Amino acid sequence: MSTVAVYPGSFDPVTNGHLDIIERSAKVFDHVVVAVLHNRNKTPLFSVEERVQMLKEATKDMANIEIDAFHGLLIDYIRSREAGVIVRGLRAVSDFEYEMQAASINRKLDTNVETFFMMTNNQYSYLSSSIVKEVAKYNADVTDLVPQSVKAALQRKYGEAVDQKD
Ligand code: PNS
After folding, report:
1. DSSP helix, strand, coil percent of the chain (3-state; round to 5)
2. Domain range for residue 158?
């Protein structure tokens, strides 16, 4: 039986750290659904449609990846996709408490779904979507932090030349 894994997140925007987890998950699981949350509690920089589009562009050469969006509880979405696995990246000890809570409540809601954690590649251990937005807002170079299409989208959002390297 093939294993479908869901990698959920805000992806506002996708970073090279997320892409590292996506690439590595695709080697472990048969099919990986990267699922963007419609989160009414947060005010995102990018709309869900923009985030989905950036993820599609960044993963277009990867074989067993699908990009989707979901509302509501993750576990309901997991069931609707008949997935058995949630993938999450862990950067540092500071991620652990929230992730342990989330994995525990998800297991309580459905004991058939397992959460798999992947240690983020060391070179991205400091990287987050928030840090990328902060840096881009002040026109610093984000070339090594995000894919090219995201860098271009950040430039458009902030209306400034983010690029200082080229
Ligand atoms: O990229 P993020 O913001 O760290 O991702 C968090 C996400 C989307 C995985 C989490 O907020 C989530 O699953 N939200 C859906 C609502 C839900 O199921 N909550 C209970 C488990 S935390």
Report:
1. 45, 20, 40
2. 4-165
